[in-house]
Amino acid sequence: MVAPHLLSLQPAPLTSWGMFSGRRRFSDSPYIESVWEGVALHSGTHFTAADGTIDLTIQKRQGAMRLILSGPTSRAYQTDFEAGDEVLCMRLKPGVHLAFSNSKALTDIDRFLPNAGSSRFWLQSTAVAFPTFTTIETFAQHLAKLGLLKRDIVIENTLAGKGDGIHPRTIQRHSLASTGLTMNHLLQIRRAEHARSLLGSDHTLTAIAYETGYSNPGHMTNAFKYFFGRTPSTMRRLMAN
């Protein structure tokens, strides 16, 4: 197994997405990859992208907060939202999983977790306070100390290009156990994400396709449709608005 092609082009930041407006940042936590919060400007349909990771999303609708547990996604799917919906999404790093749950059973599944009052939710048998954009790292560390969040070092090392000494069957077993997806599928998602991060630059789509290892621009377009639900040109227009 090899890591995705390293890019010489630099990604551009994303602060708005389609009908949502908000802010996004990466995290230095060993459990969290990124955090995004935003508000829906009007009602509509949102394409949830494939990511191969678990997402924890707090949705605030008409003053009521709920936590959505989203399992690793293998392909894009549509979700509906209402004007004024507020969301805070924590994307876990690849291989980070819930210790008490089978990730295979969560793949491509969204599940509302029960509330424990107005400011907490139940995770397994523990009542956990809803985090904020600035307290996500403390929140994740708390879950890890409780033994609810676990890391898979095999997955981390493989995606970082450090899996040469690991038997392919071991990699595959860990990938399926932690994400419900094959390692090849995870690498394909990673490559598409690399390409997506460059759409905000002034480079042509053809240049981005070849730079990120696609055989041709059409190959990248097909990958975008499958993993993100939109073509590269459509996504570029959305990012420019």
Task: Please supply descriptive tags for the structure shown above.
globular, 13 strands, 8 helices, 32% helix, alpha+beta, Arc Repressor Mutant, subunit A, seven-stranded antiparallel β-sheet, disordered N terminus, 27% strand, 241 residues, two-stranded antiparallel sheet
What does this structure look like?
- This protein is an alpha+beta fold and 241 residues long.
- It has a single domain (1-241), classed as Orthogonal Bundle (Arc Repressor Mutant, subunit A), CATH 1.10.10.
- It contains 8 helices and 13 strands.
- A hairpin with a 2-residue loop joins strand 11 and strand 12.
- Helix 5 packs across helix 7 (217-228).
- The model is unreliable at 1-16 (pLDDT under 50).
Mean pLDDT: 89
Counted up, domains total: 1
β content, as a range? 25-35%
Structural category:
alpha+beta
CATH architecture: Orthogonal Bundle
Write the H/E string, N to C.
EEEEEEEEEHEEEHEHHHHHH
Quick overview of this protein structure:
The protein has 241 residues and is of the alpha+beta class.
Show the helix and strand layout.
Elements: E1 16-17, E2 20-26, E3 32-40, E4 44-48, E5 55-61, E6 64-70, E7 77-81, E8 86-92, E9 97-98, H1 103-106, E10 110-113, E11 120-123, E12 126-129, H2 136-145, E13 149-150, H3 153-159, H4 168-179, H5 183-197, H6 205-211, H7 217-228, H8 232-240
Antiparallel strand pairs: 1-2, 2-3, 3-8, 4-7, 5-6, 5-8, 6-10, 9-13, 11-12
Helix pairs in contact: 5-7
